[in-house]
């Protein structure tokens, strides 16, 4: 599949990013290493939390959506690097067994003033579950290669 360049992407365009099913063991394993809060690690302790059940770390959720973004969009483009993440929001807990789906929407685009061979795309990642519940959102700016510097 040919790569998409900066010129090929328009504001308002959306892409579906695929799915990822999150298991209880993955939630606990991630939490043990990176976010050892009781409601991510222990089902009994989670019952006493405001969530009343085991939930995934928000950071794990973010990592999953970065994976979906990479596999579903960035690998198909002339993406060179990330520049900024903003407005990261965890909108609803993610539970064991949830099937996460992602999509992106292009919000803005501009040519680099310092290097005309590069362009900046601003895009929003929106994550939801199999029930349609929106659980995650973040805005990113990425650096993308241009096909030519004349467009």
UniProtKB/TrEMBL annotation:
Domain MaoC-like: 19-109
Pfam families in UniProt: MaoC_dehydratas (PF01575)
InterPro entries, A to Z: HotDog_dom_sf, MaoC-like_dom, MCH/BMMD
Signal sequence extent: none
Organism domain of life: Archaea
SUPFAM superfamilies, sorted: Thioesterase/thiol ester dehydrase-isomerase
Family annotation (Gene3D superfamilies): Hotdog Thioesterase (3.10.129.10)
Species in which this protein is naturally found: Natronomonas salsuginis
Name listed for the protein in its UniProt record: MaoC family dehydratase
């Amino acid at each position: 599949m040919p790569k998409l360049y900066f010129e090929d992407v328009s504001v308002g365009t959306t892409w579906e990013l695929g799915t990822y099913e999150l298991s209880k063991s993955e939630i606990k394993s991630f939490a043990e290493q990176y976010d050892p809060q009781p409601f991510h690690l222990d089902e009994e302790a989670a019952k006493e939390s405001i969530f009343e059940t085991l939930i995934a770390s928000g950071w794990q959720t973010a990592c999953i959506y970065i994976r979906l973004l990479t596999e579903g969009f960035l690998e198909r483009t002339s993406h060179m690097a990330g520049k900024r993440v903003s407005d990261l929001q965890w909108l609803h807990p993610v539970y064991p067994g949830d099937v996460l789906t992602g999509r992106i929407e292009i919000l803005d685009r501009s040519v680099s003033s310092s290097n005309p061979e590069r362009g900046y795309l601003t895009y929003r990642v929106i994550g939801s579950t199999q029930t349609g519940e929106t659980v995650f959102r973040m805005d990113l700016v990425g650096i993308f290669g241009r096909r030519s510097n004349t467009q």
